[in-house]
């Protein structure tokens, strides 16, 4: 199997697994279901693409088309993870707040006060904060480097062929 894919998938799994103890340390709440959810620290998107890019750079070299493709694709994925996807999650929180306001208006005839909620790490959060993307990228760099070390005795192209 393609060793670059293996390194990338393992780093994604590691990032997802690390979300559980990191959340526990921050919130004092054990939530194993975080392994299967998006968002949170570290970004598995960033870990996956940065580990693959690092692995390719070390196996094939930086001046290759493989590296260029992986780098550009990885930067787009990381930008999207903390940009568009995060904004979608924040919009979802606003919509949920409006839904609560409408419920209050229909069920309570007295004056309704509405307080806008600030985004928190909730199920609706689809994307990542910049520090979560950076954390995933650093984890991916480390995973890509370790993956390269573990396959160092292979030929230069064996990471990209079926063995």
UniProtKB/TrEMBL annotation:
Protein name: Divergent PAP2 family protein
Pfam family, one: DUF212
Organism the protein comes from: Neobacillus piezotolerans
InterPro entries, sorted: DUF212
Lineage, top ranks: Bacteria, Bacillati, Bacillota, Bacilli, Bacillales
């Amino acid at each position: 199997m393609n060793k670059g894919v293996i390194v990338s998938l393992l780093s994604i799994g590691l990032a997802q697994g690390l979300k559980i103890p990191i959340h526990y340390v921050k919130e004092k709440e054990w939530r194993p279901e975080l392994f299967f959810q998006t968002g949170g620290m570290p970004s598995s998107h960033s870990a996956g693409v940065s580990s693959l890019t690092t692995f390719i750079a070390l196996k094939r070299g930086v001046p290759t088309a493989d590296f260029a493709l992986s780098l550009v694709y990885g930067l787009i994925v990381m930008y999207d993870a903390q940009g568009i996807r995060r904004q979608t999650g924040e919009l979802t929180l606003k919509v949920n707040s409006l839904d609560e306001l409408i419920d209050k208006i229909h069920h309570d005839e007295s004056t309704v006060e509405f307080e806008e909620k600030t985004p928190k790490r909730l199920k609706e959060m689809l994307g990542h904060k910049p520090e979560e993307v950076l954390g995933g990228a650093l984890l991916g760099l480390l995973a890509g480097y370790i993956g390269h070390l573990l396959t160092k005795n292979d030929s230069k192209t064996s990471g990209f062929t079926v063995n």
